[in-house]
Write a structure and sequence with these properties.
Elements lengths: L2 H7 L41 E3 L2 E4 L5 E4 L3 E5 L17 E9 L4 E7 L3 E8 L1 E6 L4 E5 L2 E6 L4 E7 L6 E8 L9 E6 L10 E5 L7 E2 L5 E7 L4 E5 L5 E9 L2 E3 L2 E3 L4 E4 L4 E6 L3 E9 L4
Parallel strand pairs: 14-15
Antiparallel strand pairs: 1-2, 2-21, 3-4, 4-5, 5-12, 6-11, 7-10, 7-12, 8-9, 8-11, 10-13, 14-16, 16-23, 17-22, 18-21, 18-23, 19-20, 19-22
Amino acid sequence: MDRKKFIKTSILGTSIFAASPLLARVLDNDIDELKPLEPVGFNHIPTTNSAVAENAVLHTSDSRGLADHGWLVSRHTFSFANYHNPERMHFGVLRVLNDDYVAEGKGFGTHPHDNMEIISIPLSGDLEHRDSMGNVAVIKNGDVQVMSAGTGITHSEYNKNLNKAVKFLQIWVFPNKRNVTPRYGQLTLKKEERINRLQQIVSPNQNDAGVWIHQDAWFYLSNLSLGKSLSHRVHAATIGCYIFVLSGELFVNDQLLKTRDGYGIWNTAEIHFKASKDAEFLVMEVPMVIG
């Protein structure tokens, strides 16, 4: 397929667009770009390298892609920019899970996106956001940010501090509705609401807890103390769960996960968590099929 046509019609076309000739170079950006990869469908297909069960995949911390640009160090759970692993394209509609470090005073210059739900979860430091809708905001640990790119948006992200690095998760989810009006949302969470329970931080419902996105997806954070257990019922049979451990260790069902490990499970009605060490983790419930 012709590269330009592919960019317009495939994965890349759902995430980043060139709004003008001056922005066209974004298609060659090796930092914040989805490369023109062959479509692999929207069902996650387990592979021999990562499958640990018929309905589960394990992505250990050291198996992730690495991009070290000096000012930016990013670990990619799924294929992104110069990291291309055909076995690690996505988990259902979860397309990007980047674990980013941004050096003091550095950041991402103005760049465009379209038709993608982008969630940022700061882990430490202060990240300044500016966008073409006129929003100027700073997010820090305890906040969650969402941006529905829709018909098209440009934005920048910079480490606001000159003496401290920023660490944050950048997550992209395919939307269930294309070409919506772009929008921005930000919320400060109450950390005490995630102690030994799941705190909802993202949902499809505008009036529900957390921020909302254009997708039938639910995200949760939890701080689970050593020896404590939780159970979670999945919203629907078509939904899978991807768990990412921020710190500590825990069992998800019978699978032990360590810091920065990821674990995807589907075709299950309920998931059980038990902390083998104090653990902080993120749960992402996402449709396994785009529709």
